[in-house]
Every structure is written in structure tokens, then in C-alpha cells.
């Protein structure tokens, strides 16, 4: 039986990954701040822990992160947890004898040549990749970062970070009038099931480097809203509120060609929305406003 160390097992990605691994016959060991984790681990602590007696695993899956904003405090939090915390992950992987670390990265770390990072979060995740790649290379362990596009799920866990996605589903399922800001800037949504499948497939083949995991079909928030209203069929409509600030453009790089060799396929958005409608958790997409 293969053993997996999952850092951040309480996160949306970490919890779904743990379920997926157990279904495939893996033993899963959780590492994090929660009291039910087998390995206590705080990526934001003041000192580096290097001793983890009795902890052994084949692969470490790193799913934990801070999601600070672009304020000075938010940027500091992102660097403290995501960047400095990466040193703690390296120490844990070394102590546990893992052959590989698979990182849940973010497409917000991607940027066009000579462009600045779009957010402190994306910048911190990119710096974390550098720490992980360098540190693991020193100890002969392999590293791969899967830079995911915007992740969503059918259980409503995604609304914490995908606020507009959550609002669109909320209004569509309740048949309300949604006043959407103008702009057709593309967005890219990947279902969390596809994300965790990609992480395990990358582990299976020993993938290395940085891979961009983007859905082959991008959506604007307007097209997403139209799909959602069609799927839920509860009435209501989408109106463009021209007085609102337009959606800002975001950069989504092409999906890495290595994904095809992994055999990864993506859930179509219509199927993802139907899973929300029919999965018993649609009420978790509560009506709320987004500024």
C-alpha cells in the first residue's frame, strides 16, 4: 500500500484528494493545524521543524496555502505561509523519505514575459515553487507543481475563493435577477475532481517541473451565468450593470501539453453545473453580494 502525506487535508483540494487516494487504496496521513491531523504542522510558525519521528510516506501532496489580499498585511501573510512554509514542507518531505512532492500551485503564478505578477498570492506561490524545487533537488527528491486555474466544486466549498462563481450559482438556483458587471474577460474553471485526478496522475508517472492545468474551454462570467440559468431553470435573468466596474482581464496560459500524456480529461461546465444542481449541496451556494 502506498502512503501519501497530505499537507492541508482540510482544504477543498486536500479533502477531495484524500478521498480520491483512499478510494485508490492509498494510506493517507494528514499534516496540518487541525487536531485530527496525524502530523501537527503549522506552515506559519516562527521556527523550522526538522524532526518528524515515525513519519514515512511515498509521496507528499502539498495542498495548503494562505490566500491573503494585496494589502501589506495580506502580502506578508502570503509570504510567511506560502514561501517560508515551503521550507517546512521540504523538511517534512526529507524526514518522511518521500520520493516526490506534488504541489497544488496556481495559474496566478503565470505571467506574460516582462509582466508583473497580478497578485501577491500568485507571486508568493511562484516563490514557493522555487523554494520547493531547489530544496528537494538538494536531497534527490522530485518536484512537480500543477498550476491550477480557478477551482470549483459541487459542494459549495469553492465560494470562499471563487466569489463570483458562487454568486452566479446562488442567483441562478434561486431565480433572481443578477446584475453583472460589464466585460467579457475570459476566465478558466477546473473542477476540483479533475484537479485531484491530475495530482495523482502526476505522481503515478513521476512528473517534474511546472504544469499549467487549464480547462480547454474558457468562460466569461456572462457565459457562465447564462449556462447556470439554463441548467437551474428557475427563472430570473442576467442584466449587465454598466455602472459597475468592469471585470478585470486575467492571464490564463495554454494548458501544458504533458496533460495529454497523463490522459487527463476535463468535466464540461454544463456537467459541473448539473452536479451542483443534483448533488444535494446547492443550498450551500447562498445568495450573497460581491463588491
From TrEMBL:
Gene3D superfamilies for this protein:
NAD(P)-binding Rossmann-like Domain (3.40.50.720)
SUPFAM superfamilies, per database record = NAD(P)-binding Rossmann-fold domains (SSF51735)
Question: What lineage, starting at the top, does this entry show?
Answer: Bacteria, Pseudomonadati, Pseudomonadota, Gammaproteobacteria, Pseudomonadales
Q: Which domain of life is it from?
A: Bacteria
Residue ranges annotated for the NAD-dependent epimerase/dehydratase domain, each copy included: 4-205
Could you tell me which InterPro entries the record lists for this protein? Epimerase_deHydtase, Lipid_A_modif_metabolic_enz, NAD(P)-bd_dom_sf
Matching entries from CDD domains are given as: SDR_e
Q: What is this protein called?
A: NAD(P)-dependent oxidoreductase
Amino acid at each position: 500500500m502506498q502512503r501519501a502525506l497530505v499537507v492541508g487535508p482540510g482544504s477543498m483540494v486536500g479533502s477531495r484528494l484524500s478521498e480520491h487516494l483512499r478510494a485508490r487504496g492509498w494510506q493517507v496521513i494528514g499534516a496540518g493545524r487541525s487536531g485530527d491531523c496525524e502530523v501537527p504542522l503549522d506552515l506559519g510558525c516562527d521556527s523550522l521543524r526538522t524532526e518528524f519521528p515515525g513519519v514515512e510516506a511515498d509521496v507528499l501532496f502539498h495542498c495548503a496555502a494562505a490566500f491573503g489580499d494585496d494589502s501589506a498585511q495580506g502580502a506578508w501573510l502570503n509570504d510567511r505561509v506560502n514561501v517560508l512554509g515551503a521550507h517546512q514542507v521540504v523538511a517534512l518531505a526529507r524526514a518522511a523519505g518521500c520520493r516526490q512532492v506534488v504541489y497544488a500551485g496556481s495559474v496566478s503564478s503565470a505571467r506574460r514575459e516582462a509582466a508583473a505578477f497580478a497578485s501577491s498570492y500568485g507571486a508568493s506561490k511562484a516563490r514557493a515553487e522555487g523554494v520547493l524545487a531547489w530544496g528537494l533537488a538538494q536531497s534527490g527528491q522530485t518536484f512537480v507543481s500543477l498550476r491550477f486555474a480557478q477551482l470549483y466544486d459541487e459542494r459549495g466549498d469553492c465560494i470562499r475563493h471563487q466569489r463570483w462563481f458562487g454568486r452566479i450559482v446562488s442567483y441562478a438556483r434561486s431565480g433572481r435577477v443578477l446584475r453583472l458587471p460589464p466585460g467579457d474577460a475570459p476566465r478558466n474553471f477546473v473542477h476540483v475532481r479533475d484537479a485531484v485526478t491530475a495530482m495523482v496522475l502526476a505522481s503515478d508517472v513521476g512528473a517534474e517541473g511546472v504544469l499549467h492545468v487549464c480547462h480547454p474551454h474558457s468562460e466569461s462570467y456572462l457565459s457562465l451565468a447564462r449556462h447556470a440559468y439554463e441548467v437551474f431553470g428557475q427563472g430570473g435573468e442576467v442584466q449587465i450593470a454598466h455602472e459597475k466596474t468592469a471585470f478585470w482581464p486575467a492571464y490564463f496560459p495554454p494548458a501544458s501539453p504533458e496533460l495529454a500524456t497523463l490522459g487527463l480529461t476535463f468535466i464540461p461546465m454544463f456537467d459541473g453545473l448539473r452536479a451542483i444542481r443534483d448533488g444535494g449541496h446547492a443550498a450551500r451556494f447562498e445568495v450573497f453580494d460581491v463588491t
